[in-house]
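Researcher: Structure prediction, please.
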Amino acid sequence: MNGFENQDKVITTWHTAFKRCTDFDLWGQPVEAIDGYHRLSKQLQEFSGTDSQLFTDEQKKVLGKISVCLNLRCKVLQNPGSPEGIMLEDLKRIGSTLKTVLSQKCQDFPVDITVAQIRTQSLNSSQFANSPDLDEEKQEGRANGNLLPKPLPVEGMPTLTIRIEKICLKDARQFIDPYITVSVKDSLGCNLMAPQETPVATRKESQQIIFNMDVYIQKWIDSLPSGFAIFFEFKHYKPKKSATSVKCWACMEKDEIKEGNVALELYKKPADYKRKNIRLLTVKPLFLHIKLLFNV
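Model: Predicted structure follows.
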């Protein structure tokens, strides 16, 4: 499959998802619409990044603008009765732009994003005055993590799901608010997509911290450059320092990505994203246990 065929398949998938979202929006089903808009926006963000090679720079600008508009629509739907930052009719015009993005230019975008952002920011500012304590929000955010939704399926382009089952560590019960940051980086250590953090694990045993959480890699494995690797950083909270600390890390290179159960070695911090000076955390049989699944 060549690059043009990939582009056509991806755009068709995105436009179908977009139409489904606007239908939910029109039918008065905001929960379903928000979920779909959010999922599609995340994927557009990933493929409008500088590292993405599937689209041209001009096409990425258009995709980035569409992503912004989807997020603005979500904010409006989350606040019924508020002055709308972006109207549903405007969003439908953007659907035509998404469908023909391969021939679109950024300056031809059908919606004035600046005006829509100002209106939505005004709405957010009015809510901010009545918002709860920010420290509590930050703590809640850490507990909930920021895992991204499962990417939209595209025929012939498999995505990867990583189930983080558990990590084995000495004195596992001592770690406060433990979680894992998952990132995908190139051979130079640069992010190829947004890092994701799991929610805090609440189940601990003598030498095990149980997660059983799914992380969806947001780009198709075949679209990633050679030399990439997936990193897992185990982090926990230190009350005395009022800070989060990295205890250890693990990584998985492309040739290790095969369906099934995997036990990854744990390494001493800091994480070496270029993989030049890796040191084992311990000689004891303690590992990060994950399970890999390809979504076709």
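Model: Residues 125-132 have pLDDT under 50 and may be disordered.
Researcher: Thanks, that helps.
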